[in-house]
Amino acid sequence: MNPRRKQRLVAFSAVILVVGGAIGLMLYALGQNIDLFYTPTELVEGKKGVKPQVGQRLRIGGMVVPGSVKRVDDSLAVSFDLVDTGPVVTVSYQGILPDLFREGQGIVATGVLTAANHIEAEEVLAKHDEEYMPPELAEAMKGIKHVKPSEAVYGDKG
Amino acid sequence: MWKWLHPYAKTERAFALCSKLLPWCWGGAALGLAIGLVWGLAFAPADYQQGDSFRIIYLHVPSAILSMGAYSGMAIAAFIGLVWQIRSADMAVAAIAPVGAVVTFVALFTGAAWGKPMWGTWWVWDARLTSELILLFLYLGVMALYQSFEDKQQGAKAAGILALVGVVNLPIIHYSVEWWNTLHQGATITKFGKPSIAPEMLWPLLISIVGLGLLVAALSLYRLQSEMIRREMHRPWVQAMYRQQEGQ
């Protein structure tokens, strides 16, 4: 390779490395702010030593505890518990839940923290996993039989 | 080792190579997309959780993978164009960018259309969605920079540097779902280990990915040829080709 080409090769490789390194450091520094949501554990025990304050607007993501969904018959009000590995956080919500909302399903809720482990949500989104399989296989493998939300019967009717 | 590549630095030879590859790409794309999409959209089983809505995966995943694949190709071309100053590589950057931008837009659009019924929202500013949107802006930036110089060689240089710098976005897109918690789910097939999708759903998906890949290749090669003719209109080889076509 002639020297001028070599010089350019080094220069442009350096540009990529430097810019890549700079952006990497930036993302590392911003790390926890890029997270879309708090997990229930982070909400209750704090995330890297910082606990969210009551009254703060935030997002929480976790799994709906089976049997914890309480609906009110004459309105759209609903409350349910979220869990990841530790503490449980209760979410109250008024509105239409997404189709994928089920007990045992991962969800992400946006709202205001009204007590240490209670959130008044204004938006509830469903999060699904990366597994796709036909219904028969799901039933055979995991013992899961999903029913449409419209046909679901929840354990505890409020 | 790279000696066999040297002749293709000549635009004329690269043009001939494109002509040779094009019919294969068009044919493969038509075949792959026809089989993959019909199989996926009509015959593959419905998902246990999402029912028939999950079928949009057969458009969403191929376009998302190809949005990154096309960008890698464009960045490699940009690197070659900048370091070895090969004109056909510069032209390849300009040829791939709009194709990649369209594929990225399709990925974002099908993702939004999938997100609304499943997640409950068209858009959320999580790391995966945002970084993919940045990819679209990178493509648009490369296109704009290339066009904004009177001297095409200057334009190609500026666009090439942007394309190169933007490469850092690719690992960010791919690993965003692992590094941060996001609404978007993790990788299904582009990961180590067994894909978490049933085989009868996976096959049509893989075939669609290959089909769309060949379509992107075909469109890029076609655009590359046009770009070569446009920029070398006054060169003898283009003139000779033109006269030959006239003569027929």
UniProtKB/TrEMBL annotation, chain A:
Q: What does the entry list as the binding residues for heme?
A: H128, Y132
Establish whether keyword Iron is in the entry: yes
Instruction: Output the InterPro entries linked to this UniProt entry.
Output: CcmE, CcmE-like_sf, NA-bd_OB-fold
TM spans, by residue?
A: 9-30
Organism's domain of life? Bacteria
Q: How does it sit in the membrane?
A: Single-pass type II membrane protein
Which Gene3D superfamilies does the annotation name? Nucleic acid-binding proteins (2.40.50.140)
Per the record, ranges on the Extracellular side are: 30-158
Give the protein name, as stated in the record.
Answer: Cytochrome c-type biogenesis protein CcmE
What organism does this protein naturally occur in? Bowmanella yangjiangensis
What gene is this protein a product of?
ccmE
From TrEMBL, chain B:
> Where does it localize?
Cell inner membrane; Membrane
Keywords of the record: Cell inner membrane, Cell membrane, Cytochrome c-type biogenesis, Membrane, Transmembrane, Transmembrane helix, Transport
**For the Cytochrome c assembly protein domain, which residue ranges apply?**
22-184
Identify the InterPro entries for this entry.
Cyt_c_assembly (IPR002541), Cyt_c_biogenesis_CcmC (IPR003557), Cyt_c_biogenesis_CcsA/CcmC (IPR045062)
Q: Does the keyword Membrane apply?
A: yes
Mark the transmembrane ranges: 21-44, 64-84, 91-115, 127-146, 158-177, 201-224
How does this protein lie in the membrane? Answer: Multi-pass membrane protein
- Family indicated by similarity: Belongs to the CcmC/CycZ/HelC family.
Question: What biological function has been recorded for the protein in this entry?
Answer: Required for the export of heme to the periplasm for the biogenesis of c-type cytochromes.
- What is this protein's name? Heme exporter protein C
This protein's species is Bowmanella yangjiangensis
